[in-house]
Design brief:
Length: 198
């Protein structure tokens, strides 16, 4: 399947994806092979159902939120993601040190920069996409993560304390800038990186 994958992906497409995402040629062809193996409709796109068949996402409590990240804002729940969109989202999980190998002073901030990794994580919590995390949104995500292991009262207390500590402007929510401030000492590199084979 590896040779089939590289013949279906044109060389100029590979070069464009390399430039946009920072992935190497071999990483792109391997990920294209994985992409085509998930494409049950064989139409060059993946649906939400295709993603739900990935065992690691199916068992992840935030699996639905991660799957939603592959689909651009405003699209219906039935829409599809093409390979380029797939790669753009995966690029957020490239290790930050990979940026040093692909330094281009004219390029915009890489998708796997600390800021873009944090923005990706922020959007997992910002369920209504209004650029802030409300108490209800925080509670929903906490519930997804812990299930029934903690009472609603305890979860409410955790959410209230989290917002109280992060909220600097008194609006009872967490903005992206407040989110960054709270996570400034967290090793985002280690927590939000996947080592893709070269």
């Amino acid at each position: 399947m590896g040779s089939r994958a590289s013949t279906l992906l044109r060389e100029e497409e590979i070069e464009e994806i390399k430039k946009e995402t920072g992935f190497s040629h071999s990483q792109i062809t391997r990920l294209y092979s994985r992409f085509t193996s998930l494409d049950k409709g064989e139409n060059g796109t993946l649906s939400r159902e295709d993603f739900q068949r990935i065992p690691e996402l199916a068992i992840n409590p935030l699996g639905d939120r991660i799957i939603n990240a592959f689909f651009p804002e405003g699209l219906d729940r039935e829409d599809q993601v093409n390979f380029r969109g797939f790669m753009r989202t995966l690029a957020h999980f490239r290790p930050i040190e990979d940026n040093e190998k692909n330094k281009d002073p004219t390029a915009s901030e890489p998708l796997n920069s600390r800021t873009n990794k944090l923005l990706f994580a922020f959007r997992l919590y910002d369920l209504d996409r209004d650029d802030k995390i409300s108490r209800d949104e925080l509670l929903q995500v906490l519930r997804m993560m812990v299930g029934v292991n903690i009472s609603d009262e305890q979860l409410g207390s955790i959410a209230d304390r989290t917002i109280q500590e992060a909220d600097q402007n008194g609006d009872n929510s967490i903005s992206f800038n407040e989110f960054i401030k709270v996570l400034e000492k967290v090793d985002v590199e280690q927590k939000m990186s996947i080592r893709f084979l070269h």
